[in-house]
Amino acid sequence: MRTKILLLFLLGWVGMAFGQEEIKVDGNYYFNYPSKENLNAFSNKTDLNQKTTLPQIQSEIEGSRFRVKVISITDGTVNFIFGDFDGSDLQEKINNQSKLGNRESTYLKRLEEIFSNHQNDEGLKKLMGELSNNSSKVVKEKKGVYSLPLDKFLLSTKPLYNRVDWRVGVFTVPFKLRFGDFNFDANVNLGANIGAKIRWNREIENSLALEPIFGFGLASIQLDESNSSTESATNVSAFTINTGVLIHITNAINVGLTYGFDNISKNDQNNYNWKYNGKGWLGIGINISFSGQEDNTGDL
Predict the structure, then answer these.
(1) What is the pLDDT of residues 23-35, one digit of tens each?
(2) Which residue in 269, 141, 289 sits closest to 213, CA to CA?
(3) How many structural domains does the chain have?
(4) What percentage of residues in the chain have a pLDDT greater than 90?
(5) Domain that holds residue 110
(6) Closest Cα to residue 22, out of 61, 67, 73?
(7) Is 118 in the same domain as 201?
(8) In whole angstroms, what is the distance from residue 144 CA to residue 57 CA?
(9) Exposed/middle/buried for residue 143 (C-beta within 10 Å: 0-12, 13-18, 19+)
């Protein structure tokens, strides 16, 4: 009985350890329709726009799917900024980036035009330079920073995974269709590849994804009278290079269509005159990735 209880405890602990989400600094997340209750402790870390109140911002966030980036985690509190709101009043209300900044830039350009005839006035040049620098700082420093307790942040958000994940893995192409006489060939081969997994839906970790790849490796080529000048069957090694597109079926194992070339050594080619040397082939490849696919620290 004690053993069973201990096993249940260990299984529960393992489940909690692997089930907990880790909030990353610089990680991207999105509000998953947060409730008013989970936003009760929502607060601002920087000054708000004079026309905006915190309850107004909180009402905009409630039940939303806005994107955010975590900038720091201190004392159980997650500090974050929102993504940009294109062509929306929310850019001014939530991100606190006043439209006045754009008007200031317009006024400065106009002032530069007016005083363009006074290019030799060093004092005026210095003043215009200071105004330009200060205006740029105003625009850059006005993005609002907000915070939520860690537990409320976990309940209110989900990870927003990178659109593109760079991955490294190994591949094999068990069957190849060799061009020329369209001959199917099976040989032993293994190689390394690098790929860019392009995620279809950033809100789903293992959503449908395509991955362009580039790889190289070694293959064992079987030579016989049908494909070379040898009088008896033999095997030689070849350097293989390929490119293609993978379709993801599981978290790490995927299949795809690949196109490549096999090249045996110059000495072997002189001896055997392999007719497919350096010629293209089309194959079905199997890839196993060794790099993670859960990164959410790229561009928001």
Answers:
(1) 989 999 999 999 9
(2) 289
(3) 3
(4) 47
(5) 103-135
(6) 73
(7) no
(8) 11
(9) middle
- Angstrom distances, CA of residue 206 to CA of 47, 164, 174, 272: 39, 12, 26, 47
Where does the pLDDT of residue 2 fall: very low under 50, low under 70, confident under 90, or very high at 90 and above? very low
Cα separation, 232 vs 210, in Å, equals 43
- 208 and 148 co-located in one domain: no
Residue 234 lies in a domain: yes
Cβ–Cβ under 8 Å, residues 165 and 199 = yes
Asked whether residue 122 falls in the same domain as residue 197, the answer is: no
Q: CA–CA separation, 188 vs 246, rounded Å? A: 20
pLDDT value of residue 14: 34
Residue 256 to residues 168, 238, 260: CA-CA distances in angstroms? 15, 22, 13
Q: Which of 167, 146, 172, 168 is nearest to 157 (CA)?
A: 146
CA-based nearest residue to 178, from 267, 287, 277, 286: 277
Q: What string of H, E and C letters represents the secondary structure of the chain?
A: CHHHHHHHHHHHHHHHHHHCCCCCCCCEEEECCCCCHHHCCCEECCCCCCCCCHHHHHHHHCCCCCEEEEEEEECCEEEEEECCCCCCCHHHHCCCCCCHHHHHHHHHHHHHHHHHHHCCCHHHHHHHHHHHHHHHHHHHHCCCCEEEEHHHHHHHEEECCCCEEEEEEEEEEEEEEECCCCEEEECCEEEEEEEEEEECCCCCCCCCEEEEEEEEEEEEEEECCCCCCCCCCEEEEEEEEEEEEEEECCCCEEEEEEEEEEEECHHHHHHHCCCCCCCEEEEEEEEEECCCCCCCCCCC
Q: Quick one: which of 215, 220, 221 has its CA closest to 287?
A: 215
Give the predicted TM-score (pTM) of the model: 0.67
Q: How far apart are CA 167 and CA 215, in angstroms?
A: 12
